[in-house]
Amino acid sequence: MEKGQVIIFPTDTIYGMGCQLYDKVALERIYEIKKRSHDKDIPILVSSIVQINVIAKYDSKALKVMQNFWPGPLTLILQSTPDFYNKTGDKTIAIRIPDHYVAIELINNFGPLRTTSVNISGEAPLNKIEDIRKQYGDVVDHIYGEHVGHYIGIASTIVDISNGSIKLVREGAIPFEDILAVYNK
Fold this sequence. Notes:
This protein has helices at residues 24-34, 49-52, 60-69, 82-88, 101-110, 129-136, 176-183; strands spanning 7-9, 16-20, 44-45, 56-57, 74-80, 92-96, 113-117, 142-143, 157-160, 167-170. The chain is an alpha/beta fold and 185 residues long. It has a single domain, classed as DHBP synthase, CATH 3.90.870. It is globular and about 45 Å long. It starts with 6 loop residues before the first strand and ends with a helix. 37% of the residues are buried.
């Protein structure tokens, strides 16, 4: 993936639109393509907890949650490391490890990816490759995994654990009660 490029690829939940982690030009393109407000950050997909250590801080409770639900459809909001904050200005970041071989292969090849759903902000995500190609084929640089159907079609659950407590941000594929049970163990 070259600088400035935006790609679409399958994840374990829904298709994602993404770019390399520190590529500001491509990130701005995603905001424009989606007509997304800049006050909504774009989550980060990583392939391992080791990759998280460079960009986020977390405690032992957060680690338990990660080890129990990742890879999988759970997005955690964590505090940024000072280095990541200095590079991006983001005090907190939403992170997850997807359970899909195409997404993991892309992350392993290009590093962590800023990734969001494939849709105009506020509209339902597109999950059919035909619809994605029709609406975004001429807008993005590449669409990966066109012949893979391994996804659940439900967005990830988002939980904020950035300040030492746990808060549900969005109910998704994993029930909040299940996450809470692991967090409070």
